Amino acid sequence: MRILTSSLRLSFGCWNYDRTRALMDRTVVPDGIDLVYLNMPVEETFFRMLRHKEFDIAEMSLSSYVMSHFTEAQPFVAIPVFPSRYFRHSSIYVNSGAGIRQPSDLAGKRVGSPEYQMTAPVWIRGILSDEYGVRVDDVTHYTGGEEQPNRPEKLPLDLPPYIRVKRIGPQQTLSTMIREGDIDALFTARKPSSYDGCHVKRLFEDFVQVERDYFRKTEIFPIMHTIVIRREIYEAHRWIAQSLYKAFAEAQARIYRDLEETAALKVMLPWLNAHVEEARRIMGDDYWSYGFKQNRQTLDTFLRYSYEQGLSKRRLEPEDIFVPETMENFVI
Fold first, then answer.
1. Which residues, other chains included, contact 107 with Cβ-Cβ below 8 Å and sequence gap of 6+?
2. In this structure, which topology does domain 89-218 adopt according to CATH?
3. What is the domain partition of the chain in residue ranges?
4. Which of 40, 58, 70, 194 is deepest in the core (most CB within 10 A)?
5. How many CA atoms does the CB half-sphere of 287 hold within 13 Å?
6. Rounded CA gap, 280 and 183, in Å?
7. Which residues contact 204 (CB under 8 A, 6 or more apart)?
8. Is residue 305 a contact partner of residue 220, using CB atoms and an 8 Å limit?
């Protein structure tokens, strides 16, 4: 597709997802925008955007974005596009000698997370509280690098005193600590390298069924990341919010069509069609939905968790965190 020479050139930090790939290879071009797609793993994108605001647009941890509303600058706005969603029951790991057989056994234990503010542990802590009665202050939280030492919180924490968060040592990693029994459990996004199914196990070994049951009960498919725009860029060019949203939606629609193709598999997964049919049967046709209205309940649940866990200073509403241009659409 031809890019007009008058297009606004904007940088975009994001990982290489199937649902955003058309933006990277420029088969989808946002109206009026020359998008420079910088393909990076999420940890790098988040760090560079939160610490240095290096990009005009970026994929962003939902939790860190929410926390940024309580900084003086409030440097970002967001559109309701969600490049990462993930059921996180599978992301609770336990040391097999810690005596943790069911969620209630986590009470009184030492629980690691790479960052307390990380979106995946926020969801895990909230689900454990809502579904199993394990509150955020029932455990002691340990934070630091999962595979490399000295990972910091991307934004400073200011937690209530009843929430106990301790930094691990400068030479320690959470992956090693859970294997050695220096922590009892790990809430994280990436599977630790020490996971072997023996000394380090998942709390929910049958996590797929547990996650299906959770969705049937709650209708929540947890949102991990959203798309943010630097506030000064948005305020100077408010039209870009809709241009970007439309382009992300079109890039995603192409993948929906690819995943339903039966002449040949476009993804190297032997039973892809069965997975797609099952997802549609349980979650509906738009099982990875973008947009505000259809995700309001999920967003409201996350915002409650952020407040209950001491990350948000007040209880935000979903309407507080997205630009108004993406709240509604025109009708002919």
1. 134, 138, 139
2. D-Maltodextrin-Binding Protein; domain 2 (3.40.190)
3. 8-85+222-252+291-325, 89-218
4. 58
5. 20
6. 39
7. 89, 90, 92, 210
8. no
Q: What one-character DSSP code corresponds to residue 162?
A: T
Write down the pLDDT at residue 5: 60
CATH code for the part of the protein at 8-85+222-252+291-325 = 3.40.190.10
Q: Is the pLDDT of residue 148 over 70?
A: yes
Q: What is the pLDDT of residues 156-209, one digit of tens each?
A: 999 999 999 999 999 999 999 999 999 999 999 999 999 999 999 999 999 999
pTM of the model: 0.96
Contact 151, 78 (CB under 8 A): no
Residue 115 DSSP label: -
25, amino acid identity = D
Angle subtended at Cα 155 by Cα 153 and Cα 156, rounded to the nearest 5 degrees: 85
Place of tokens 């947890």: 222
Residue type at 2?
R
**Whole-angstrom Cα distance, residue 185 to residue 201?**
9
Query: 292 in helix, strand or coil?
Result: coil
Query: How far, in Å, are 268, 327, 329 from residue 332 at the CA level?
Result: 41, 17, 10
Residue 261 CB contacts under 8 Å (≥ 6 apart), including other chains: none
Distances 243 to 8, 249, 291, 296 between C-alpha atoms, Å:
11, 10, 14, 22
Number of C-alpha atoms within 13 angstroms, CB side, residue 33? 29
